[in-house]
Design goal:
The chain is mostly beta strands. The protein has a single domain, classed as Double Stranded RNA Binding Domain (2-Layer Sandwich). 9% of the residues lie in helices and 19% in strands. The chain contains 1 helix and 6 strands. The chain has a 4-stranded mixed β-sheet with strand order 5-2-1-6, covered by helices on one side. The protein has a two-stranded antiparallel sheet with strand order 3-4.
């Protein structure tokens, strides 16, 4: 089951539509396109005969994703996640504290 394309193993970013962190600790194995997309002359839709590019496999750990790719003979590339900036807790009362560094503006 070897392919000419390389699979990508990565941690997907969280949705910009949410502030939650659910589903941000999974690893995804995604194939790249093996053939270019083309326009179907009958419908006008873009398509391809490559069905593996439609798959997105999810794994709990990086090691599981790598083991799956190696067991199935899939060439892969691992993208390590960027380190997350620490979250500084804030309180509404900090807007009114004595000795605040910046001026209050409306």
């Amino acid at each position: 089951m070897s392919r000419s394309g390389i699979a990508r193993i990565y941690v997907p970013p969280r949705s910009a539509m949410t502030s939650g962190r659910g589903r941000t600790h999974v690893w995804v194995l995604e194939h790249e396109l093996a053939e270019a997309k083309r326009i179907d002359p009958l419908t006008g839709w873009y398509g391809s005969g490559d069905t593996e590019a439609q798959l997105r496999l999810r794994f709990e750990t990086r090691e599981e994703a790598v083991a799956y790719a190696e067991a199935n003979g899939i060439p892969y590339e691992v993208e390590e996640p960027k380190p997350k900036a620490p979250i500084k807790p804030k309180a509404y009362a900090d807007n009114f504290r004595f000795g605040r560094g910046e001026n209050w503006t409306h």
